[in-house]
Amino acid sequence: MEESVALQENSNEQTRDNFDKAAPDTVQAPMIRSEIGAATDPSSQSNSSSSSSGDDALRIRDSAENTAPASGLVIEAGEGQHQQGPGIGGSGGGEDSPPNSANQVTVVGDKAVRSDIALSVLQQLYLPEQTDAYRKVNLHDKTLSFPHSPSFPSVKMLLNHERKRILVTGGAGFVGSHLVDRLMLMGHEVIVLDNFFTGSKRNVQHWLGHPHFELIRHDVVDPFMIEVDQIYHLACPASPPHYQYNPIKTVKTSVMGTINMLGLAKRTKARFLLTSTSEVYGDPEEHPQKETYWGHVNPIGPRACYDEGKRVAETLTYSYMQQDEVDVRVARIFNTFGPRMNENDGRVVSNFIMQALRGDELTIYGDGQQTRSFQYIHDLVDGLILLMNRNYKEPVNLGNPEEYTIREFAEMIRNEINADVEIMSLPPTEDDPQRRRPDIGRAQRYLGWNPKFSVYQGIRETVQYFKKTKSEQAWYTD
């Protein structure tokens, strides 16, 4: 048994260095009933080019066997109902295009680690032209059926020694599901571990059945054994209503869950990445916040279960590195938004968008002069993949240094959705940080990472997603 483990460890050490070497040419595996244009080949993409949007588009075709379109929701209408559901496009265009569309990001990722993907490809996973390729909705008797097998996007074809086995804890959540999409499209084998407290199977259902994908219902508080090459440890509720719902469980997830995953990394010699948070800085007295700042945290306040839990998780991570030579990375994530956010998670972006869509007043706590820095989800995923595959072990801030007051952000979303709604002030919440802005010098210097997405472009996509979600809910409740 020890000999087999040793052989596996040597194999892991060889595969881990592949990203630091020159990448050979890759080809794409064929799709079942859909295909991706040539722009998904990294060699044909350019981060600064927007002239190949036609090639970048995800081209869906019907199969010769008269099966359903690869990205269509089939709706059976009842009496007096139209058969076609609302079509909400994922790539924008037409009258809805912003005036500065020439500056829009069209390619995400980084060629250096072969994570570059056309944005239009990713959009088909969370903003398809129609919803859910293989679900059939009968509006008359309000039933769902699944008459067709799913079709999968093309993924890059990697040699066996290039393809990594990657574990993503919390991979069915908001951030985790976008990370899974990227890792799958890069050609790796991905195992998602999630207890579905805040995550949803629907976030990753488009990969269910794919030979490179595995979904396991499991709580990281309990030990878990598997052979992997990399571990992205994201598991932990991250919004105040969720982590304050059961503060003891939140602490156990951050502490015991991290111990279990670090123990797994130690045994398998896997590289381990902890997603920490800007909350470790508390209500900061330094602005902007550098990674060297130790923070200003209330250890017994309502946020302490999350803030201090993540601080302990960082302590554990570096203790395993120093004592047991575990290969670790730590990302301190600042406010992030995008599609697949939980509409009821109590975060600023989802709150404002849902209130504006309903025509309700936008609620801010206090005078709204607290500041936050908002990054779009694709920028965060770029940073996580770069950090995992670079040789840098110190904590790294991942966030957008553009700083907005909460009131400014509320006005931005109001103007995008419904300019007629009012903004209402409520009493401030306890221990709410007054200023939050990352210093991203380390990420720029050691990872070559910079956020690409403007807040405006991110808001437009996120609003599209919530409109689509709201429309689906209307279908089921009408």
From TrEMBL:
GO terms for molecular function: NAD+ binding; UDP-glucuronate decarboxylase activity. InterPro entries: NAD(P)-bd_dom, NAD(P)-bd_dom_sf, UXS-like. Keywords: Cytoplasm, Decarboxylase, Golgi apparatus, Lyase, Membrane, NAD, Signal-anchor, Transmembrane, Transmembrane helix. Residues 167-462 form the NAD(P)-binding domain. Its cofactor is NAD(+). Residues 14-23 have a biased composition (Basic and acidic residues). Residues 86-95 have a biased composition (Gly residues). It is a single-pass type II membrane protein. It catalyses: UDP-alpha-D-glucuronate + H(+) = UDP-alpha-D-xylose + CO2. This is UDP-glucuronate decarboxylase. It comes from Linnemannia elongata AG-77.
